[in-house]
TrEMBL record:
Protein name: diguanylate cyclase
Gene3D superfamilies (alphabetical): 3.30.70.270, 3.40.50.2300
UniProt key word Phosphoprotein: yes
UniProt keyword list: Phosphoprotein
E.C. code: 2.7.7.65
Residues with the 4-aspartylphosphate modification: 54, 175
Occurrences of domain Response regulatory (ranges): 4-117, 125-242
Length: 413
């Protein structure tokens, strides 16, 4: 989706700089040089990621354009060359996202990172933990202004339950002084559930205790703010924390997912703690595309790539809560739980759907089949893979397009 950004700026050179920077960042600028022109645009559409507004315009020299956009529920970033203390207070009181001083042409370089941050914020769910309803609502208002999805908890126990239940939560902002559990205890408990790459944490406190910053950070928090905090500092620390989290997640995915199919790679599969330390019976299947070389030879490697991508999507559709990994080439592995019969039914349903599906990328119509080797046992992961591989070999040798389970004496189709 391409987001639009409204720009209202009366300086032609600065307007051109802004337009170029916004386009380079991948957004569509809608340009006006006055309130009158901006209102003409806004009469036609109001669906903007945000508006970047000059504080002083020919037909509104005291920030009037800010109120015009805020009245239409458009997020606002303010540009101004006259950021004295009075103007700064007035701008921040208007619930804007941020302001940028126009002290040099290079100031536009901060626009793209801010726009990218706002766009990415839609993906994040933030849990605010505080026993004070007033405090929660204030922090919530600051976060929602930045397109963040906000949840609330009134104590530590409730927060822990919500983090266990809702995997979407990527940031927790917790107060220190609360009944049942203080904020430092909440952070320690959260770190037993989630790593830095899975969950970011910011601590807050109004206590006059100089040791709290270190205590929060040593417990596993990513940052700490003393209350009452400055809105600008809050946003700076919030953006820094989310940027670091996004970077860590991106690096994790680059290292552990298969670039082509976006399922887990072989290394992640064997190194994952659940894979290595699980106790009790579980099911595992190796899946291989039959005659895959013929697809590459007949239609080209780009069609082969599309085939693997679509097959991976199908596997994730049939096994959304389970570990699906690409082992290499056209071979995939699925690690399932303890319900052997359910696993067999899903594998067979997937195989049968695939057999009946006609693939037609770039008007190249063809069908594919898969062979599956499956094992259900209480064994180490390497042994499960070896046993499933022997079953896969049997499935291939017995005519392909079939599922062979460990322990079968006859080949069945």
């Amino acid at each position: 989706m391409e987001y639009k950004v409204l720009v209202v700026e009366d300086s032609r050179p600065f307007r051109r700089l802004l337009e170029a920077e916004i386009r380079k960042a991948g957004y569509i600028p809608c340009i006006a040089n006055s309130i009158e022109q901006a209102e003409t645009i806004l009469n036609q559409e109001t669906d903007f990621l945000c508006a970047i507004l000059d504080y002083c315009l020919p037909d509104g020299q005291d920030g009037e354009i800010i109120d015009v956009c805020l009245s239409l529920d458009i997020k606002v970033i303010v540009l101004t060359a006259m950021m004295d203390a009075r103007t700064r207070e007035r701008v921040l009181a208007k619930t804007v996202i941020d302001y940028i001083p126009k002290d040099s042409p290079s100031c536009v370089s901060s626009i793209a990172p801010l726009l990218n941050r706002l766009e990415k914020n839609h993906q994040h769910h933030v849990l605010v933990v505080d026993d004070s309803l007033t405090a929660r609502r204030y922090v919530r208002s600051l976060l929602e202004r930045q397109y963040l999805n906000v949840l609330e908890a009134q104590n530590g126990q409730e927060a822990l339950a919500m983090v266990r239940r809702d995997k979407r939560i990527s940031l927790v902002i917790t107060d220190y002084t609360m009944p049942e559990m203080d904020g430092v205890s909440v952070v320690k408990a959260l770190r037993k559930l989630k790593t830095d790459g899975q969950l970011a944490i910011i601590g807050l406190s109004g206590e006059e205790d100089p040791s709290l910053t270190a205590r929060f950070l040593k417990a596993g928090a990513n940052d700490f703010l003393a209350k009452p905090f400055n809105q600008e500092e809050f946003y700076c620390r919030l953006h820094s924390t989310l940027n670091a989290l996004d970077t860590e997640r991106r690096l994790f995915n680059m290292a552990n997912t298969d670039y082509l199919t976006q399922v887990w790679n072989r290394r992640y599969f064997f190194e994952h703690p659940h894979t290595r330390s699980h106790k009790g019976p579980r099911s595992l299947a190796l899946v291989d595309v039959d005659h895959f070389k013929k697809i590459n030879d007949q239609f080209g490697h780009h069609i082969g790539d599309i085939t693997l991508i679509e097959l991976a999507k199908m596997m994730k559709r049939y096994f959304p809560e389970d570990m699906v990994a690409r082992f290499g080439g056209e071979e995939f592995c699925i690690l399932y739980g303890n319900d052997e019969q359910s696993f067999v039914r899903r594998l067979e349903a997937m195989r049968e759907e695939l057999e009946k599906t006609v693939w037609s990328p770039y008007d190249k119509a063809f069908s594919i089949t898969i062979s599956i080797g499956m094992v259900h046992a209480d064994a180490r992961i390497d042994e499960l893979v070896q046993r499933a591989d022997r079953c896969l070999y049997q499935a291939k040798a017995g005519g392909r397009n079939q599922l062979i389970q460990d322990g079968q004496t006859d080949l069945v189709s």
